[in-house]
C-alpha cells in the first residue's frame, strides 16, 4: 500500500506554482520561454504532427537540410541548414555533412535560441541531418545557457548496421552536449504493437516523443524555472515516458505504465523526477497521492519530485501521466547551476 503525500519526508515533493491544492484549474501565470525544435526529417515530422493536432507547446522551429521537406513542414519558424554545403538537397544520410550544415548555421541557431530558457529537440537518429546536426544544435544551446532536453528515436534494427552505428555515435555526442536525453527505440513499436502498420507505428513514436513535452508546457510557469532546471540539467542518466489509463482501470495504471517504460534507468539509481498528471477533471487526492508515491518508489532513497496537474476536457474518463526521470547533478553542481540565471 502506498502512503499519502502527507507521510512523505518534507522536501521530497515540490509542486509547480500554478497547481492548486484542491486539484482545481491551474492558477494563471507567465508561461516559461520554451523553444521546441524539430531537426531533420524525423524531427520535422514530429513538430508537424504536434501543431497539426492544435497543441500549444511554445515557439516551434523546424530545421532541415532538405528544402523540399522543410516546405511541407508545419512550424512557426523554419531554418534551412547548410545552404552552401547541402544546397537544400539534404545530407545524403551522412552525419558528417549534417554536422557541417549545422556549423554553417551557427549564427542563425544562436539567434533562434536567444531568450529561451528551455529548449526541446526532436530528432530521428540514424540518418544525416538528425544524427549530425542535433548534437551541434545542443552545443549551441548549451553555450547560450539554455537548458536543453533532447527526445530522439533510434532506428529499427532492420534498417541496417550503418544507420544503427550512426545513431549510437550521434547519441554519444548528444549526451555530451544536452542536459537531458531521452531515447525511444523504434524496435519497441514492433515489440509492444506488432499489429500496427508502419505509418501508424511512426505516428505512435511521434506521440511518445511529444506527449511529455506537451504535458510539461501545460504546467510550467516562469517562476518554476529554477526548480525545473535542477531536475533536468546536468543529468548523467535520463529518460522521459508517458502512460495513459481509463477511469475504469484506475488512474494509477497510467503511472505504472509510464514507470514501466523507464525501468531501464533503475540500475542508474535515478534521484529526480518531474511528473505531470492530466485528466478531464476527476482526479482525486487519493489517486494523486498513490501516483506520487509510486514515482518516489522508483527513485533512490534521497530522490525528489517536482509535480504538476492540469485539466483537459479532451481527457474525459482518461488519465495521462508524463514522467521525466534522471540521475541529476550532485549538490555541488546544483549550487553552481543556481548561480547562473
Q: Could you please describe the fold and organization of this structure?
A:
With 341 residues, the protein is α/β, with parallel strands linked by helices. The chain folds into 2 domains: 5-29 and 235-338, Tubulin/FtsZ, GTPase domain (Rossmann fold); 34-219, Rossmann fold, CATH 3.40.50.1440. It has helices at 40-52, 67-71, 95-104, 106-113, 129-143, 161-177, 187-192, 198-219, 225-232, 252-261, 285-297, 331-338; strands spanning 13-15, 34-39, 59-64, 77-80, 118-124, 147-154, 180-185, 237-246, 272-279, 304-311, 318-327. Residues 331-341 have low confidence and may be disordered.
Give a summary of the structure in a few sentences.
This protein is an alpha/beta fold and 341 residues long. The chain folds into two domains: 5-29 and 235-338, Rossmann fold (3-Layer(aba) Sandwich); 34-219, Tubulin/FtsZ, GTPase domain (Rossmann fold, 3-Layer(aba) Sandwich).
Strand order of the largest sheet: 4-3-2-5-6-7
CATH class of the largest domain: Alpha Beta
* CATH 2nd-level architecture of the largest domain: 3-Layer(aba) Sandwich
Query: For the CA atoms, what is the radius of gyration?
Result: 19 Å
Number of helices: 12
Poorly predicted segments: 331-341
CATH homology-level superfamily of the largest domain: Tubulin/FtsZ, GTPase domain
Amino acid at each position: 500500500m502506498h502512503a499519502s503525500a502527507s507521510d512523505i519526508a518534507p522536501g521530497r515533493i515540490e509542486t509547480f506554482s500554478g497547481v492548486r491544492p484542491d486539484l482545481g484549474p491551474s492558477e494563471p501565470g507567465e508561461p516559461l520561454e520554451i523553444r521546441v525544435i524539430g531537426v531533420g526529417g524525423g524531427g520535422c515530422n514530429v513538430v508537424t504532427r504536434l501543431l497539426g493536432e492544435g497543441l500549444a507547446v511554445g515557439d516551434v522551429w523546424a530545421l532541415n537540410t532538405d528544402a523540399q521537406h522543410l516546405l511541407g513542414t508545419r512550424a512557426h519558424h523554419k531554418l534551412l541548414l547548410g545552404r552552401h554545403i547541402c544546397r537544400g538537397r539534404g545530407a545524403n544520410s551522412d552525419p558528417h555533412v549534417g554536422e557541417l550544415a549545422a556549423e554553417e548555421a551557427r549564427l542563425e541557431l544562436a539567434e533562434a535560441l536567444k531568450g529561451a530558457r528551455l529548449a526541446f529537440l526532436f530528432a530521428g537518429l540514424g540518418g544525416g541531418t538528425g544524427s549530425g546536426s542535433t548534437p551541434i544544435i545542443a552545443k549551441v544551446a548549451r553555450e547560450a545557457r539554455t537548458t536543453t532536453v533532447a527526445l530522439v528515436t533510434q532506428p529499427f534494427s532492420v534498417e541496417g548496421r550503418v544507420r544503427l552505428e550512426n545513431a549510437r555515435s550521434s547519441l554519444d555526442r548528444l549526451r555530451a552536449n544536452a542536459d537531458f536525453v531521452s531515447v525511444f527505440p523504434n524496435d519497441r513499436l514492433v515489440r509492444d504493437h506488432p499489429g500496427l502498420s508502419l505509418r501508424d507505428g511512426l505516428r505512435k513514436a511521434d506521440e511518445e516523443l511529444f506527449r511529455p513535452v506537451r504535458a510539461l508546457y501545460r504546467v510550467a510557469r516562469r517562476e518554476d524555472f529554477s526548480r525545473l532546471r535542477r531536475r533536468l540539467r546536468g543529468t548523467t542518466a535520463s529518460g522521459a515516458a508517458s502512460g495513459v489509463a481509463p477511469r475504469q482501470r484506475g488512474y494509477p495504471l497510467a503511472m505504472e505504465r509510464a514507470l514501466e517504460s523507464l525501468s531501464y534507468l533503475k540500475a542508474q539509481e535515478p534521484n529526480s523526477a518531474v511528473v505531470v498528471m492530466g485528466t478531464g477533471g476527476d482526479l482525486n487526492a487519493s489517486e494523486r497521492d498513490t501516483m506520487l508515491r509510486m514515482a518516489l518508489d522508483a527513485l533512490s532513497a534521497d530522490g525528489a519530485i517536482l509535480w504538476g496537474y492540469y485539466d483537459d476536457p479532451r481527457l474525459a474518463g482518461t488519465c495521462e501521466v508524463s514522467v521525466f526521470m534522471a540521475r541529476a547533478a550532485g549538490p555541488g553542481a546544483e549550487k553552481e547551476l543556481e548561480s547562473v540565471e
